[in-house]
Amino acid sequence: xxxxxxxxxxxxxxxxxxxxxxxxxxxxxxxxxxxxxxxxxxxxxxxxxxxxxxxxxxxxxxxxxxxxxxxxxxxxxxxxxxxxxxxxxxxxxxxxx
Amino acid sequence: xxxxxxxxxxxxxxxxxxxxxxxxxxxxxxxxxxxxxxxxxxxxxxxxxxxxxxxxxxxxxxxxxxxxxxxxxxxxxxxxxxxxxxxxxxxxxxxxxxxxxxxxxxxxxxxxxxxxxxxxxxxxxxxxxxxxxxxxxxxxxxxxxxxxxxxxxxxxxxxxxxxxxxxxxxxxxxxxxxxxxxxxxxxxxxxxxxxxxxxxxxxxxxxxxxxxxxxxxxxxxxxxxxxxxxxxxxxxxxxxxxxxxxxxxxxxxxxxxxxxxxxxxxxxxxxxxxxxxxxxxxxxxxxxxxxxxxxxxxxxxxxxxxxxxxxxxxxxxxxxxxxxxxxxxxxxxxxxxxxxxxxxxxxxxxxxxxxxxxxxxxxxxxxxxxxxxxxxxxxxxxxxxxxxxxxx
Lengths: 97, 392
Hints:
heterodimer, A: alpha+beta, Alpha-Beta Plaits, two-stranded antiparallel sheet, two-stranded antiparallel ribbon, 2 helices, 5 strands, B: alpha/beta, Rossmann fold, 2 domains, six-stranded mixed sheet, four-stranded mixed sheet, about 40% helix, globular
């Protein structure tokens, strides 16, 4: 993103184009990545609800996977995932980079 | 018609707030500010103002609520003292950094420990670097006048910076003096209607306050904050000009008393300046050519103008009612900086007085005058920094 020049006539630091977090990709912060197992998923969408960013992708009410550009690897989705018959649909794995 | 009244400093400040009728006030009681806010909450309870009064659980919360209300687009006030101001410390920087023109009377009180409710300037000096504008007031009249002008300075479109109006706890806040109140409609017209920019409640042009700004732009935002402060001098003077028209009282960046023809000067903030003026008259009769400079605007600090007013002196004694332990007092360092550009500088000493409400009596002022006069006569340079009026 281009750096904006701060002028005296600007008021305080503020976001004047709300919704711009789509431009701010935080995936590079990640050291653990979520691994999704479709057969353990009930599409309860708790992962989508709890994700603090917008890393969980959903189409027509179904969980479809992750957009890792916005995933910081916090693991909240994996923690909240109720899974199916004791098997989680999301598990965190150390990423080797 | 002028309306004189015998009131305490707190009552005078509360009356100014009543006349301004701000949108929101969030405050927490602390001595000696308590009855300022108690008076003002009476006005809200009696329907004499339409201010939304928010009672909070601490000063940190009070300032946080003020920040929210100001960002939402309101004209916002609060008031505090000593440890209350200290508890606000984190949020003071947020208010200034977000450029929210909050107005706050500070009724100066010592900081703990030892626990002490009486006057000194440790509280406001502790908040000196928070990015707030600071006006200081000698008596209830100045506190009232400064508070009305504070709205215009803080809210000026070029400024948009929060402002504190300092007044000595108990010495002024709780003692009765004569105040010349302006009529309500004159104050209302003077402060005008508040039009906030970029408000949270403007749904047609949504904004978000408080974003994360890291190494790429934080530095630039701070440079802008500093640059804006340098505009405060002009704005404060033009507001003072307009205030002179409605009140007949002329304020500057600082006040002087018998300084022009003086050999040496005293420099003091707030109520001590009044005591000094009295003693200076006596000392002049006894042959001491002494004058006074009392800063009104302490942040931003008018180095150039104050240096120019003091440069002719042979000696200057800076009286500090706050200490930076192991260093010179905060007012001393500013006065020394303002005299630095001159090739010949006055002999300068720093005397710490009145901490925790220790009386600052005429005899103390006279002692300082004699000490400076003695140093000039003998050429023996006294210790730079010393506490005066200590118990023996």
